[in-house]
Description:
Blueprint: E1 6-17, E2 24-35, E3 39-43, H1 50-57, E4 65-70, E5 73-74, H2 81-90, E6 91-94, H3 108-118, H4 125-138, H5 155-167, E7 173-177, H6 185-202, E8 205-210, H7 213-219, E9 222-227, E10 230-236, H8 237-242, H9 247-254, H10 261-266, E11 285-290, E12 293-297, H11 299-311
Parallel strand pairs: 3-8, 3-9, 6-7, 7-8
Antiparallel strand pairs: 1-2, 1-4, 4-5, 9-10, 10-12, 11-12
Amino acid sequence: xxxxxxxxxxxxxxxxxxxxxxxxxxxxxxxxxxxxxxxxxxxxxxxxxxxxxxxxxxxxxxxxxxxxxxxxxxxxxxxxxxxxxxxxxxxxxxxxxxxxxxxxxxxxxxxxxxxxxxxxxxxxxxxxxxxxxxxxxxxxxxxxxxxxxxxxxxxxxxxxxxxxxxxxxxxxxxxxxxxxxxxxxxxxxxxxxxxxxxxxxxxxxxxxxxxxxxxxxxxxxxxxxxxxxxxxxxxxxxxxxxxxxxxxxxxxxxxxxxxxxxxxxxxxxxxxxxxxxxxxxxxxxxxxxxxxxxxxxxxxxxxxxxxxxxxx
Length: 312
């Protein structure tokens, strides 16, 4: 099998805010790779550090420690102007709230082309207009929408404008930060299908951030589960759903609603209690327990997880 190309590498990442006694560690010792052409998902509760990781990869938040690589080049800390420009162009973000992330006073034409204008990525006005209209068409919006303001659109349409704004830069990597959580349920599937369609047509790679495991199963190739700033389990999408090992992953999966009312009634909710881990002497490690299936635990727990896998 050909070696997959690593587009993003995150090594021992730590992100903290404040200093000294007031230091708050938001992300601790995070390691993962994102391969070209895949959708890699980060799943966890609100406040677990998912968005912080996404924003740190895109250089919005500074990393306190560790390294982030894009196509083999280190992109955190001080980097050259040329590399900074390349990261801004090739790595884009789709934000959670389509209302708050669009400038209410600007027309759609300016919102979508702001990146092009800032980085002079067009020869003349006609080319800029053509790029904006192509991006709007690609996300299922009419080119004449360019002359309107964001408040004239529904939530789903506004999120499509946000996606067009990212696409117009012709990125290779997109951080999609809970891109559907602010949308009506009926619109969510449309936006997910659009993201999947664009991934194939544009050869895109996604970091998809969500708290909803049912959504993540539909769109992801691999899933990392994060709890309080630390990744506790990482596996291919189906593997994680079939053989969840970490108690926190099991708790998240037990909360996923079942479409069948009878199954929903019989379902047992599993509540995660962090105090079950005794890390006082036997210290936890991040280990590959099965090919492609990583888990955070101490030697005693790892042995238990291996036993579980044998029984499965």
